[in-house]
## 1
Amino acid sequence: MTAYKEDFHLASGHYLLSHSVGRMLKTAQTDFVEQFMLPWQQQNQEPWQQWLGGIERFTAILAELLHSEARLFCPQTNLSSGLTKWAMSLPESGIRKVRVLMSEQDFPSMGFALQNALDNIDIVYIPESLNMHDPAVWQQYIDDKIDWVFVSHVYSNSGQQAPVSQIIHYAKQHGCRTIVDIAQSLSVLPINLSEWDADCVIGSCVKWSCAGPGAGFIWVNKTILPYCEPKDVGWFSHQNPFEFDIHHFEPNESALRFWGGTPSVAPYIYAGHSLGYFAAVGVKAVREHNFGLLTKLQAALPEFYRSPIQEDTCSGTAILDFGPYHDEIKARLKRASIAVDNRRYGIRVSPHVYNDQEDIEALVEVVKNG
Ligand SMILES: Cc1ncc(COP(=O)(O)O)c(C=O)c1O
């Protein structure tokens, strides 16, 4: 797996921040010039045909990676925007109170989006102290009074992985809709959207997919798609964008009804290229490599290791809590050019395909011996 290290731009030091921004592929720049710039530079035509082809490549590869259909994906700038659009599009929104279950560990932006998307919303938060990888916790909170269940596949501050299939199963038993956030799991944990059968999935490609910011997306279950009426629309949401009749709007039959006006293109060119790379490597292989390095880290520093250690409950990120030594060790890591960050429960360490045993050993050495 270390051969993959050569495929990425890595500066000197040890980069362990893939939960934040994944490194850029060396081939991305040439691909971007070919797919985005050359059609614009060289032909006496508008480049939309090639640009839209780049977006189709993006949704096609997402469909391959996530085991679904390209027509169920729609580009979105980020997760917050996708979530807002989805929440506002549902038949019950604006008609009655909607009670949503989410966790205090969810990324705050997800709460902000939901609180503001609907006037009549009641959010029930699962307390931060509870284990989000424990199915019993979800079972306890999901009941007939809940309308929607929001799940993060991965909670990046605690390194926990939610049991998404089981949660969706409980939710269905109580007639709840389900929304899954895959920001922190795409391209590092295997995901099968057809098996999950959630109502909506939102994600982006800036983290483990190494594709830079701006290439978010929404996936909508085909059974509920016909009932979704997005409020934030534009000509690219129309079934036939080139009809140009201001009196006639027909939502696209695919998830593109969530698209909007003239789309941005550049982020999806990068993302299509990068996702293609991970589809070729195989997410299973990425996870094996990631889990192997997490296991080594846990074996070397068990006294500081706070995130789960089982493969089905841990995410791609390890959380290390140094207690009273936190500031000192953080400063030492910085001096040694070991790029990590810290959140509420400790330091976050995310080994990707471009990391190897040497990166983990360097970190362990700094922690143990300064
Ligand atoms: C779990 C999770 N969800 C969502 C986001 C980001 O959401 P958005 O794309 O709206 O900025 C992050 C960013 O770190 C995240 O970790």
## 2
Amino acid sequence: MKVTVTTRSGRELINGGLDIDTTATVADLEDAIHQRIKKYHPSRQRLTLPHHPQSKEKPIVLQYKKVLKDYTNGNSDTITIVFKDLGPQVSYRTLFFFEYLGPLLLYPLFYYFPVYQYLGYQTKHVIYPVQTYTLYYWCLHYFKRIMETFFVHRFSHATSPVSNVFRNCAYYWTFACFIAYYVNHPLYMPVSEFQMKIGFGFGLIMQVANLYCHIILRNLRGRNGNGGYQIPRGFLFNFVTCANYTTEIYQWLGFNVATQTVAGYIFLVVAASIMTNWALAKHRRLKKLFDGKEGRPKYPQRWVILPPFL
Ligand SMILES: NC(=O)c1ccc[n+]([C@@H]2O[C@H](COP(=O)([O-])OP(=O)(O)OC[C@H]3O[C@@H](n4cnc5c(N)ncnc54)[C@H](OP(=O)(O)O)[C@@H]3O)[C@@H](O)[C@H]2O)c1
């Protein structure tokens, strides 16, 4: 089978094309491209069918497990494929690990080390119980996220661009320092013990609920991430599409009730708006996938992320 591989501008990527077996899969084609051009590891290749530039439809992305011939519409001898270089990639686990490792290591620096003396504060540093509990709560949260990354989540996408590591680390690491700076500050004023207990108690319940939501999502897929997107059911998913985000937002709310800093509330608002955008997209995707037509189930009536508002 003759495969012509072009770039998006129409230039031939491999002069003369490739001859591959008629039973070859898209993964085999990716390997063949990699053999010819060493820098294009399969993880950074995006292969699509040719697509009219004026068309409003999105180009069809080739699925790596599918047999290439299935994309030829009956003409099994030749096919043209459009190649896009996605750039250097890292696995999702690596991406998540580094973005969570920063907060886990940076926060304790502000608690254990005399950071504020270096910044010119000479006052005697009294450590309130809430500051110690916040350290435990914070570390537990990010430790849980790292554990979930390795032992719970079943990602459908193998890799992400390296540039996302820098972007996501900048986001998490900066907020970690920003919050740690204010919570551990020598001039920090603690809330009442009652308020602290309510905040941390509620936050911890939400962290456990969040873990349970992640286990429900995990069980929607096979071991190697197979199974695509399913309708999440059970527990809070019977009411909310993105119950994992709902519990995440509420656990940060609990954290802020207990610690009460402007920095913490800014993080809550930013994180909630990011998750709301993602939740709207996930809700739309599930409604589109499960439209109730041609034997497909209909996506049930649910809140998106924050009942009773959205
Ligand atoms: N504080 C913050 O700023 C912030 C922001 C975002 C997330 N988080 C936390 O990090 C956690 C993970 O975030 P995330 O954005 O990766 O969560 P997510 O996209 O909702 O999903 C977590 C895992 O479940 C899978 N999944 C989701 N919906 C599914 C469905 N309908 N069918 C089958 N599998 C499904 C995802 O697969 P895919 O690989 O296909 O996506 C992913 O592997 C969140 O739940 C939240 O606790 C915090």
